[in-house]
Amino acid sequence: METYYGFVSTSEDALALFEACRLGYKQRVPRRLSDGERAAIRSGSIFVWEESESGMKRWTDGRSWSPSRVQGCFLTYHEWEGRRRAQRHPSFHSMHGFNLPMNMHNMHGQPIPMGIARYGHFIGGPTKAGSTQVQYGFPKENGMLKKALSIRTADGKKLHIIAYYSKEDHAQRRLLTPTTDPNFPKLVVPPNLYPDMSP
């Protein structure tokens, strides 16, 4: 079900994949992945899908991910062990059984456990009781990273790329990109077909 095995580094790589799918050299994902297909996701798995064609507005892979960060034209995520929402509480001295050292404070002067301070993602402000709601998780050992990109074509189609990779594979340059892969079709991307991105 993979559209391509490799890595997407630049907007040119993304455009090459979109165009290869449009011309039939590569296949877009036509539906949601089955449980077995999700389990087969590996470092280097790249999926391209179009919303109306697949019936999917949101990609699901059954894994937990960190909040997104912007990296060029992509959003990036780190695989996490889990994401939870802490109970509202007037202080952070004890949170779901975690008794961690207090060496940082939030903007209201409340102590924050080290685990929350380092990996926590604040999604709410102070409540009426003066507490803060926190969503948090912990990086998964040897977990993957994920890159995502969404654009709209000139004819109104909503296209997406989801790419998975490991830090080690990326650091060792084990994964080819569409623009460096000698076996990837050499294509000229029409300049006005993807107005959200420039070749």
From TrEMBL:
TM stretches of this protein: none
UniProt-listed InterPro entries: Gti1/Pac2
Domain of life: Eukaryota
Stated name of the protein: Gti1/Pac2 family-domain-containing protein
Pfam families listed in its UniProt record: Gti1_Pac2
Gene Ontology MF term list: DNA binding
